[in-house]
Amino acid sequence: MRIGTLRHESPLGCWTRRDWRPEHLAGVVDHFWFSEGVVTHPRERILPNGMVELIVNLGEEPYRLVEGAGSDILTSCLSGVQSAPLVIEGPARHTVLGVRLHPARAYALLARPMREVSGLTADLLDLVGPSASELTGRCHDAASVPEIFRVAARWVAERVARAPGVDPSIAWAAARIEGTGGAVSITELRQQAGLSKARLTTLFREQIGVAPKLYARIVRFRRVLAMLDAEAGPLAAIALDAGYYDQPHMNAEFRELAGVAPRDFLATRYPGGVTAADPSASRGDAEDRLAG
After folding, report:
1. CA 77 centroid distance within chain
2. Higher model confidence: residue 54 or residue 289?
């Protein structure tokens, strides 16, 4: 098992993040991640990335959804494809497992239309029933991070194996959008898939969660986030590389999807498309709200 490890230490906090990309689940899972440590700011802004995120909180204290639709208190939860940022509030010390899923295969894992969870963060128990408690319990019982990853991988594989597959034309269209970084003509995509505009949109919302044009915008935005995280160059160059007409066009799109300007994102970013939200808020105030 090849696990990547990133240790972060800055005014934003001190934590260790581990990532695993299992070959046998390629195309289903983008990667598993596990993070533990301390953050100094109580609120985090999680930006859209075109993926479906399954979260298992293994810490003793809960998280709270501050901005976004869904459950107020977050333990084991799943977020569908998002087109706006989420803001969560949590404890200083965290221990969290994440599973980042490709939306086409999350459709199989949930065995329900992805439009039902698009833009939503829902309790996993409400979505999949007792299987959610089994996952959480097994992760709590695991003795190491590699074992937690194996437990989660078996859980995902078992559910996907029992579920009907995604429509091949939609899986192909989603893969094309992802493979081009969102820089693909939806009209050409529809023609190549042999689907009408209405049929493509209906199936895409059913099995991905959002319309194909919006999905392409989110995927292009994700590419920008990756380039900013890698410090790939000045903003003007990143805008052109990502397929925007110019930097003001990218800035406007960034503000719409992220809720902040690119420079504000850079000033407070964590690894993985997350920023500190309300950095002036005190940790004590947040803990008082969670306790109440």
Report:
1. 12
2. 54
